Amino acid sequence: MEVASPSFPVVSPAARLTDSHGRVIHDLRVSITDxxxxxxxxxxxxxxxxxxxxxxxxxxLRLIRLFVDLGITKVxxxxxxxxxxxxxxxxxxxxxxxxxxxxxxxxxxVTTNGHLLDSLAGPLKAAGLRRVTVSMDAVDAPTxxxxxxxxxxxxxxxxxxxxxxxxxxTPLKINCVLMRGFNDDQVEGFAHFARQEDVVVRFIEFMPxxxxxxxxxxxxxxxxxxxxxxxxxxxxxxxxxREASETARRYGFSDGAGEIGIIAPVTQAFCGACSRVRLTxxxxxxxxxxxxxxxxxxxxxxxGESDAELRSYIHRTVQGKEARHHIGEPGFxxxxxxMVHIGx
Length: 344
Ligand code: SAM
Prior knowledge:
344 residues; alpha/beta; twelve-stranded mixed sheet; 19% strand; binds S-adenosylmethionine
């Protein structure tokens, strides 16, 4: 059966993106800038800033549309810090008009540090954004600002989170990267924060994707430890996964109020269920966070290739997606870009 939508050429479902390991790829993450207004100690060295060029909003739109033609149903805009990007609201307005192969609106999301969310939550919602994930690595201001290295950032982000909730950008997810010796004392505080602020707090195991050299197996705070520590103060019950490719293990509090999640790419890798592909701010496809090579989709576009040729290039590229990452294994190589320049 062929599925048509008013704005796209007819695409056979057989053309949907799959890789050579049988995984269906339906989740696209797009970095729209590698600039960031924070210098989080576990992400950036504090030196330098952007490295890679940005495309125009029209160019991102054309590239994203190609992926949607191939069965992508979820688009997450990220960076760098995506709220720094001029044209974000207009890009979301256009993305909200696209339809998936089954005729549904895209599942549109943004990952942000929340610094500018206070004033942008309303316009983003009005543009068609459905939900937002805010990164927040501590619930006390001094620890938070030691990590971001930006004075006053804690209250800016807290206000941003509350504005996002008020604008209806829900369910509101808060991502916290835990690192031993930096913020591992925040675990229990975050459990209370999830309930007080009515947000889903998701702890993420730290991965070797930083600009500097901070990562070691010892700095990772593993899933089991997080669950055990929260359970001591607020009993948890594990919740069923909503979909096979869900990255977070979900837990509710035993009294039914609130939820936390744990994303454990290091101690409990979920590569077998990966449904993601990434587009960098300069238009390169990355088939894995830990890829050693990139695929210059934008280069092909600049050479004047047609949409059909570009779709075929995307298809071939995604076929070669890596089976899994090799964090912690002998011979592990850090990827060619750090997280801030890939798009988390
Ligand atoms: N600036 C936005 C933000 O702060 O959410 C989007 C980009 S940021 C690179 C995306 C996410 O990646 C953030 O939640 C950040 O904490 C996370 N992140 C950065 N480096 C990481 C690492 N080495 N391991 C795990 N997560 C990391």
